[in-house]
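Lab notebook, design round three. We kept the backbone fixed and only want residue identities now. Task for the bench partner: fill in a sequence for the structure below.
Input structure tokens:
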């Protein structure tokens, strides 16, 4: 069957498969995509949402944006544009069930082919080969130099390394000390090739760059209920102790102005909420932004990460910093953010010391 502008449905399915390489928190791949009558419908899989760790749906919306941008890049290589239209369901994510498959009748985004391809410097190979790298990262030039321009309501700010180290520790402690959040994280760990979903989704031992001995020790903790529950209790005790200390301490003093980086650069994607849309839309949104704008921010973030890939750099996300109320409050103070500004994403970027492994994708099975 032929779709609009001479695009076949086989073309659409090929774009969908490659867009499946988009990043998502915990590699949950929360999207469900259908090709219907010459268009692409993107839904949400409730069972792949992080209900405990992402109650505002921030990570979900950013992931949807990354998926859309990936699809736009792939389509542009074929000389085709994609018109992206949010549906009313996008504003009602809280109405979705907490588990189960996607409802085909409740797409959140619809993408239709157009005759005007996006003017993008990126290629399908960039989408395919981009990686998150959780290994050591070395200093590199400022990623913001030469990066794709952000929408006027987004900014990319830098946070210093001493502060970032404390913020990551505080965010990690928050995750460990919240049983539901920690248990949700553990459910997405795949620390042994014996795990039945090792090649499909989640975070593998190779992705996390765990030493072989550490993966062997930790893998049973994710699979055996008795060990799993005991490990979560211990992690909770440690997390609460670390959090109790770090939340009351001021951040370390920043380096002297102009001091060279001795490690990766740490960046924060910040949105200006005032004036983006109507006051009603802003007040109705948990993040202070309409969901469609968070999707747009996800597209911008993916462009930034693709730019890093093309520059030979690697990115390591730190969503735990934004998840923790104490960490994000300290981050806001460090950056001098106003009430109308929202930190959407935190990540480190630098030159990788080892290649990043390929993360599994559900769409790999249909490639």
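Proposed sequence:
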């Amino acid at each position: 069957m032929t779709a609009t502008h001479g695009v076949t449905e086989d073309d659409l399915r090929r774009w969908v498969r490659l867009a499946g390489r988009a990043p998502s928190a915990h590699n949950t791949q929360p999207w469900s995509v259908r090709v219907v009558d010459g268009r692409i419908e993107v839904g949400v899989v409730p069972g792949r949402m992080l209900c405990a760790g992402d109650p505002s749906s921030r990570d979900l919306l950013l992931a949807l944006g990354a998926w859309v941008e990936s699809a736009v890049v792939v389509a542009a290589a074929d000389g085709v544009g994609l018109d992206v239209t949010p549906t009313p369901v996008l504003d009602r994510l809280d109405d979705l069930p907490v588990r189960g498959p996607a409802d085909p009748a409740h797409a959140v985004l619809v993408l239709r082919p157009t005759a005007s391809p996006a003017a993008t410097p990126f290629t399908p190979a960039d989408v395919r080969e981009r990686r998150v790298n959780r290994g050591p990262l070395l200093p590199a030039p400022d990623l913001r130099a030469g990066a794709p321009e952000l929408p006027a309501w987004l900014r990319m700010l830098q946070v210093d390394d001493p502060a970032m180290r404390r913020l990551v520790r505080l965010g990690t402690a928050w995750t460990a000390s919240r049983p539901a959040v920690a248990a949700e994280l553990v459910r997405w760990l795949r620390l042994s090739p014996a795990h039945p979903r090792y090649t499909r989704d989640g975070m593998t031992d190779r992705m996390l760059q765990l030493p072989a001995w550490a993966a062997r020790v930790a893998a049973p903790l994710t699979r055996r209920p008795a060990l799993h529950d005991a490990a979560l209790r211990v992690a909770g005790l440690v997390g609460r102790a670390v959090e109790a200390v770090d939340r009351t301490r001021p951040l370390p003093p920043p380096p002297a102005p102009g001091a060279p980086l001795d490690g990766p650069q740490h960046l924060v994607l910040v949105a200006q909420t005032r004036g983006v849309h109507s006051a009603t839309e802003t007040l109705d949104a948990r993040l202070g932004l309409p969901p469609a704008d968070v999707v747009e921010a996800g597209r911008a973030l993916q462009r930034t990460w693709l730019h890093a890939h093309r520059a030979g750099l690697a990115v390591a996300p730190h969503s735990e910093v934004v998840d923790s109320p104490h960490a994000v409050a300290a981050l806001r103070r460090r950056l001098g953010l106003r009430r109308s500004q929202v930190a959407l994403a935190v990540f480190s970027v630098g030159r990788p010391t080892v290649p990043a492994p390929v993360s599994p994708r559900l769409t790999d099975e249909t490639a």
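Keep this in mind before ordering anything: Residues 163-246 form one domain.
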